Each structure stands twice: as structure tokens, then as C-alpha cells.
Amino acid sequence: MKRFACIFLVLVLMLSLLTGCASQSEEAAVDTPDETPAATETITMRLAEVHAEGYSTTMGNREFARLVEERTDGRIKIEVYPGGVLGDEKSVTEQVQFGALDFARVSLAPVTEFEPSLNVLMLPYLYKDGDHMFRILNGDIGNQLLANLEENGIVGLAWYDGGARNFYNTQREIKSPEDMRGLQIRVQETRLMMDLITALGASPVPLPFGDVYSALQTGVIDGAENNWPSYDSTGHYEVAKYFTVDEHIRIPEILMTNTKVMESLSAEDQEIIRQAAREAGEYQRTLWLQSEEESKQKVIDAGSVITYLESNEEFQEAVMPLYETHGAGYGDIIEAIINTN
């Protein structure tokens, strides 16, 4: 009997101890503050870029990522994917719009598929020079057009410099629109660019940027159009040595994100993102001017035949109908751009 009483007493004592431990655990769970609040969690985002490492836009993107990480004390990390590994410009623009991708740096051309009013910024022979273009982009006109873009789920963060675009081909020097006739010219996949080539008497061939070298090499196309650094960095000068400096169009480039991505961040982080993007844009433009001169000298040394037009009036006259078709409804904006000093 005494043995049974001892066992019963031990069980009671053990039960009391377990109950006390459980109560302490519950109190600890309630009273102990969360040591890793959501505000300190690291957010990793992706940024798509079609150009290779070392290209000015890629370097601008990396500067953007560096500034954001530094100013958020490492809370926001942006991984840059160069070389088109996440898709061509049209594809990544769609990915940003639908929220499948956080950031992308693209030419403005594919973005116009979502916001046609941006076409007005790409009309041929619209700007006096690069400085004139950036006065427009960073002023009231540029800001209003970016606001239109937000209605499509895309936030424009900064403008990058894409320089002036020129024609190059495998066949001959181009000195007049007549020399364009019969040529198959690669263009970006937009109606404006295809209509531009058609107006000059050539045939437009929409192709992804990464396919241009092999298409030139195999004769699928006769030529393309782009800026000096792109002509150089892609090696297109190796297979298309005739380069005509006509500066037919300046297509600004844009660093962009998704509206929901921005809305998911605090107001403070949104401002950090915007300011870092603006500074990265300035950084990229400085690099761009340097790269233009370097690329120009490189392709000349490699044997490219560079043709400077005495006048581009014939080209201007040929493309004037595009102002009516692609600038319809934006006459006041076009006039304001032309009249901006």
C-alpha cells in the first residue's frame, strides 16, 4: 500500500512539473517579440537586359542595383541578368507588364505596343540632337507620357541613352533612299519601324536582336539599323561593313518595373528605387558617350566603310507620311518637341 502511495505521489509531481513548463512555454510564445520582423527580410528581384556584360546599359543596371542595395542596407537585392537570358526585349516587356519579372531595361520600341502614345517620341528626324531629346524626356512631355504608361501596369523609372540609329548592310553604300530599294532590313517588331523601312523603299524583316548576326551572315537579311555601340558589340560590323550615318531615329531606352512591384514596397523604398534609377540613368549616359567614340574608332579600324550624308533631306521627305499615321492626334506634342530649344 505504501508502495502504491509513493508511485501515485511521484506521478502527481511529474504532472505538476509538465503543466508548469507548458504554461511557461505558452507565455514565452505570447510575450517574446519577433526577432526577425518582415521589415528586415531580404527581397531579391530580377532585372532583364539583352546586352552583354560591359555594355553601357548593363553597367547602368548594375549601378542601379548597387545603389538600391546600399541605400536599403541590403534589404533589397537586384540581380541583373544580361545577354538576353530572360528573353528578348518584347518578351521581357510582356513579363514586366504581367508581373512575372521585376525590372527590365529595354528600348522604347516594344513598349509602344502597350502605350501607343509613346510612338511620338520615336518619329524620324524629330530631335536636333541627343541633348534636345533628353530635355524632352526629362520635362513635362516625357513625364506625362510615362504617366500614361502606368495605366498599362508598367512604371517607367529612368531614361537611358540609345544614341542615334543608322543603317548598315552587306551590299553597298547608302547615300539616298534609292540605294535602299530591294534591301531586306531587320527592324524591331513595331509597326512604326516597319513603316519607316517601307517608306524608304526597302523591305522590313522583324527579327529578335540576338538573331541578327547569323541572318546577316547567311543572307537572310541584307542589313539592319542601330547605333554605333550595338553595331560594334554584336560583331555586326564583321558581316555588314557598309555603315551610313543618317541618324534617322533616336529611340530612348527605359528602365521599368511593374506597378504592383512598386506598390508592394514602402513609400521610402519606392523613393529609393526611383532616385537610384535616375542616378543610374545619368551614369549610363556618361558611359554611352564614351562608348560611342570607342566603337566608332574600332569599326573604322576594322575596315567598315562609313558614309556621311551631305544632306538627309531626301530621307526626311520620304518618311513625312509617318507623322500623319503615327503622330495622328499628337500634333500639339510634336509641335512642342520641335519648338523646344
UniProtKB/TrEMBL annotation:
Residues 1-24 form the signal peptide. It comes from the Bacteria. Keywords: Receptor, Signal. InterPro entries: DctP_fam, TRAP_DctP, TRAP_DctP_sf. The keyword Kinase does not apply. GO terms for biological process: transmembrane transport. GO terms for molecular function: carbohydrate binding. One of its GO terms (cellular component) is outer membrane-bounded periplasmic space. The keyword Nucleotide-binding does not apply. PANTHER family: DICARBOXYLATE-BINDING PERIPLASMIC PROTEIN, PTHR33376. This is Tripartite ATP-independent transporter solute receptor, DctP family.
